Amino acid sequence: MSDSAQPLPDGLTPGLYLVATPIGNLGDITLRAVDILSRCDGVACEDTRVTGKLLKHLGISKPLWRYDDHSEHRDRGRLVESMRTRAVALVSDAGTPMISDPGYRLVNDCRAEGIPVTSLPGACAAVVGLTLAGLPNDRFLFAGFLPAKDKARRETLEELGATDATLVFYETGPRLLKSLATLKEIMPEREIAVARELTKLHEECRRGLADGLMAYYDAHPPKGEIVLLVGPPEEHAPSDADADTMLREAMQTMKASQAAAKVSKATGLDRKTLYARAMEMKSE
Ligand code: SAM
User: Fold this and answer.
1) Which of 75, 127, 185, 229 has a CB 3.0–4.6 Å from the CB of 193, allowing a cystine?
2) For a substitution probing ligand 1, which of 19, 21, 23 has the most ligand atoms within 8 Å of its CB?
3) Neighbours of 63 (CB within 10 A)
4) What is the per-residue pLDDT for 104?
5) What pLDDT, in 10s, does the model give residues 106-153?
6) What is the pTM of this model?
7) How far apart, in whole angstroms, are the C-alpha atoms of residue 211 and residue 216?
8) What is the CATH number for 44?
């Protein structure tokens, strides 16, 4: 928050508050979200009916303003201007604003105008899916929705498939089989997770290869909302020939023991074995 903004009578500083809301289980609303929604001057939202229901459930009554990033620039400008003296919450229909949802233009404009912005963390389907799937998650790449058209979907998957990370996509029931079919063609060996109806009564997380998952969902057409996760490419141990090449290169500038240590660090191969091979190569 900037130092210059004066707190409103209820103690809130004027500005924009990004408020995450539940993705299915109302119990996932945070205490802080309830506090800000109760004290703000109004709520900008994707769909006033959806947000109206949530606020009713929380016993909160506030003016609701429809917002999406395609709103006229003039309307957005007015909303931003109003935040000089008002505290405005931004929510999406479910989950974290801006994660495949509107808001980024609003935040960008607020930043440009020096309007304070605060983000309240909470539910996000991508994160729930990632934690539930049990796929490697030290690196992940969230890529939103895959393109609907076959060619564009294939190109996107081909491009992202080379990334050394778990890929996270938002998916819909009717399109899941098509995405799995493309994955089966271009990454048949990758471990995949279909995380469905997260935080809801019929939550499900099913793991497997594209082939098996296709067979399952062909027989059980998937209902509800889906996060599709694709595990990273398997690390392949370098072949003996590759290791020799790396050793030879390293030994041009360093001793055999140092070369073995370097190649071992890069490949995970045993340092002593590499050293023995380096000595052999030296004497050849
Ligand atoms: N901003 C939201 C968030 O933080 O998760 C995502 C909004 S995006 C328009 C909606 C997509 O999120 C759905 O099509 C689905 O892929 C995913 N999603 C939302 N809720 C979900 C849930 N309960 N289970 C699985 N996926 C969900």
Assistant:
1) 229
2) 23
3) 12
4) 94
5) 999 999 999 999 999 999 999 999 999 999 999 999 999 999 999 999
6) 0.83
7) 9
8) 3.40.1010.10
Instruction: Say whether both 94 and 11 belong to one domain.
Output: yes
CA of 51 to the centre of ligand 1 (A): 16
Measuring from each residue's beta carbon to the nearest atom of ligand 1, which residues come in under 6 Å? 23-24, 92, 94-96, 99-101, 124-126, 170-172, 195-200, 225-227
Residues 9 and 111 in one domain: yes
Q: What percent of the chain has pLDDT over 70?
A: 96
Spatial separation of the C-alpha atoms in residues 233 and 163, rounded to whole Å: 8
Do 111 and 130 have their domain in common?
Answer: no
Residue 235 lies in a domain: no
The total number of structural domains that make up the chain: 3
What is the sign, positive or negative, of the torsion defined by CA atoms of 169, 19, 22, 76?
Answer: negative
The residue out of 187, 210, 230 marking a domain boundary is: 230
Pairing of strands 42-45, 64-66: parallel
pLDDT at position 2 is: 45
Phi, psi for residue 263 in degrees, rounded to 5: -70, -35
Structure letter (DSSP) for residue 95:
B
Of 85, 107, 123, the domain-final residue: 123
Q: Report how far apart, in Å, the C-alpha atoms of 107 and of each of 21, 112, 196, 209, 244 are.
A: 18, 9, 30, 39, 53
